[in-house]
Fold each of these.
Amino acid sequence: MTSIRPILRTGFIALFFSLGVSLTAGCQQTVPSDGRPSPSAVLSSTSATRVLPSATPLPAPSHTPIQTAFRATLTLTPVLPAPLPTQPDEQVYTDPEGWFALSLPVDWLPGDAPGSFFGKNGFLDVRFLPDLGFMTNILNVSAWQANIEFPEPENTTIWLDGSVTVDAGDGGKIQHLLFENPGAGYAHRFVRLTVDESHAEMVRSSFRWLSPAESLPRGARPPFHQMTLRPEDAALWSAAAPMPEGIAVTETVLTAPGQQVFPGSKPLTDLLPQDAAERRKDMIHTSGTRRLHTDELLAQFGYRLEQPPGGPQSLYKGDELLFDNVYRVDRAAVFPTESGEMLVFAVQTVGGETGNPDFRDYTVQGGEISERRSLFNDPAYPPVMVNGEVLWVRVDGTHVLVETSGQDILFDFSTYFGANVPLRQFKSWNDHWILEIADFIIQDGEIINEKYDFQETFDWHPLNGKPFFFFRKGKRVGIFYNGGILPIYYHDVIRGFG
């Protein structure tokens, strides 16, 4: 059995992996209780065609995923307040274990399954989500439900309160309301209430936690490190691979100010001791060549943007006008082909009257111009080429899409839209495409979280030509490298340090 290196300190550290590649993350460590040529045609079609994803098989997991129901290790004694006030046409349902209460129509009757109710004009199904109780936040739970548990992610909408709406196909909608009790153990941290659309507001507005247990600040996570390691997680770590030869992990404790800084508010280099900061700068400096800006790539292939004083931009190739009223030109990339290098980029134009703009989207691929449907929130990630085909990542409302230049949709991931969509990266590697959204990694249309039964996955990078990423499984965050789990773990890895 491979020994797992114990964690010795409390606080924040930075990780450095050798091989000339810098992968850093703030990691919270706590003493445990258990020891990521010219245009030839303008195509007028702007509709998208959906194609079922064809996932590239990944190495089989080194363990057999175990899905079991389990109880929280924190014992909480529910405290029941007075019943919720009701209207004459409502009744109060109280969870048998005393965790919550809610209102539902007075004429609804219990179903055969525990927590189910039905009436002539609606239904309700109540269930806790113990297998997802270790997730970082409620929106990750929503994304798991929408993209892994529910059969058609393209028919789902995730809202910022964590609820998920599913189009039922008959013009109706089903609401999956999620509620979080951060003071509960993982078995009771999240509860899902599935209800028909017409009764969703009654259930949502009447829901009350009856047993908040020890109060935690809003957004705080339970003290997972104090919980007992679950049997299925112990089985996973017992199968961890030895540390591969040639890989060294250096842990550096952040400075005292760095222990208190919110991730993302300062560059990580500013929070490291001087020697570690210099080492990180050297690793970044030698990690690769600079990506050329879109303007530089356009100039290399004979394109140029011109803008008269006070007027709109125009795009030319040589002396030929390709577009006027250009709003933006971006997402440029160069790919090798049998006939030489091929430049691919996106163009968005804007016309129409003031107050009623008409945006149009185009791709330019090897000189051929194609119009596609306009999606104003498209991310700035350039396209990738996989098996000779150019692929784009696009954002349509709350859905992240991977599609071809011909608008065939290869993958659809339902997510949420706050200040922006939580899209972390889109890249190619060894003729595979990699997409990272919030705490989910997708390779060639296959969600890695589901593949390996990891609640969360993040920070995917190639390290020495092999895939590397962090994952959460139960109370621990581990490292997955080259198809195996390394014998090192943390209780949390803080995202957002730059």
Note: The chain has six helices and 34 strands.
Amino acid sequence: MLWWWFLLTLTFNATELPPIADAGEAQPAQPGDDIILTGEQSTDDVGIVTYSWALTDGHPGSVIMQNPEEPNLLVSFPADAEDGDYEFTLTVTDSSGLFDADTVVVTVKGGKTCIQGVHLFELDRKTCIALCIVWLTASIWVLQARSF
């Protein structure tokens, strides 16, 4: 009988599961925003011992990450951050060295985009003003301002 108990104990330890990383849901942001990415929903059968956040796609100069070795990552986008998608990867590791990774995308939209001489200024999430600018003898003329 003792032999069976020993065999079952070894079998149970051999089937340890890797952790499951959860980097949370996609989020919007604007230049000047601070947001928190949370990995607290990550799970493991014996416990997570390390969390590691990394910017894996986007503009590195437009991001300040604080405490990337904690479950929650504070991300600051400076006022001059570039518009676009920023992908962050959370990697979690358990005490057995097993690991998993998950990604989350933060979409930064600052409201200032130059498209062939048209500057868009976002007033709120639904109203933008387009200013068409023409250079004439070192002067700027506003030809059109409208909401759309």
Note: Residues 113-119, 130-148 have pLDDT under 50 and may be disordered.
Amino acid sequence: MVWRLRAETRVLVIAVVLLMILCLPVAGRTIYVNCARPDDTGDGLSWANAKKTVQAGIDAAASGDQVWVAKGLYVGCITLTDGVGLFGGFAGTETQLTQRPPFPRPVPDPAESKLDGNRASCVVISDGGRAVDGFTVVNGRTGIIRYHYGLDAWQDKR
């Protein structure tokens, strides 16, 4: 039996199918950051082409993406993007988040990603960023400030 649909019905069926495809969840990208890189000209889509600074990695990301930060010292304040996860503590070779060295870690930590605010007003500013995980945050007057959904502050008392 052959079903014959009117042109209007065919258009409606095609539109519904396309809408369903567009509504499927899309996995976010991973943007890589490594302070050993010479500059921020890399596209950030692999460890070999990583961004040099955390802020450049965040700026290259969109909601749903993750920014992976390799071990090392990153100086300066950063502002997170809503919906972007920020993960530190990578050796710089991982392809999955679960390959990162497990926590808790030894002191000193050979895979430590350190955010150093250089005694500026704060180190991390977020208006609802998804996650900040695997970092040591130092030398900020307030450390981490989260606004928009409330105020959370962490202070380095060293």
Note: The CA atoms of residues 31 and 77 lie 18 Å apart.
Amino acid sequence: MSDALIFLSKWLHMVATVALLGFYSQLGIVYLPFLIKHFKGVELGTALDEISDRFLAWIIAALIVFAVTGTYLMVSEDSYTGLGHLFANTWTILIVSKHVLVLFMAVLGVWITFAVKKGVLAVKSDAPSFEPLNRIRWMVALMNISALLVLLLTALAQKD
């Protein structure tokens, strides 16, 4: 049963990764550039708001899946030496570094959500400034760079 549970946990963890990182990469690479190019004012704000709202439930679900499966996978790992032994071996150093970055990404995700809402309000007010949208683009780019680093740390922590 343990092998099946580990397999299921790894699969769900990867599905959540695809959902979460897929959203932010698509937001930065596809949605924002398209919306900014083809929509202005209220239409742009409405479209951005709707996209953000549609993905929110998926983001929350992915975070819950991460917490549950990640905890199980961590404690079932042979290299795990217990909660307080953060630098016991290479694996724990990589995993601690990864989770510090993941916490940063969670905070950044909340910040992006608030920035989207604030940016939507600014755009909907027909203000000529694109500053909120440029800020959102930079935050999404930072999220995507962080995601690549998390994936790198995860790959480095994998055993043969």
Note: Helices lie at 2-38, 41-76, 90-124, 131-157.
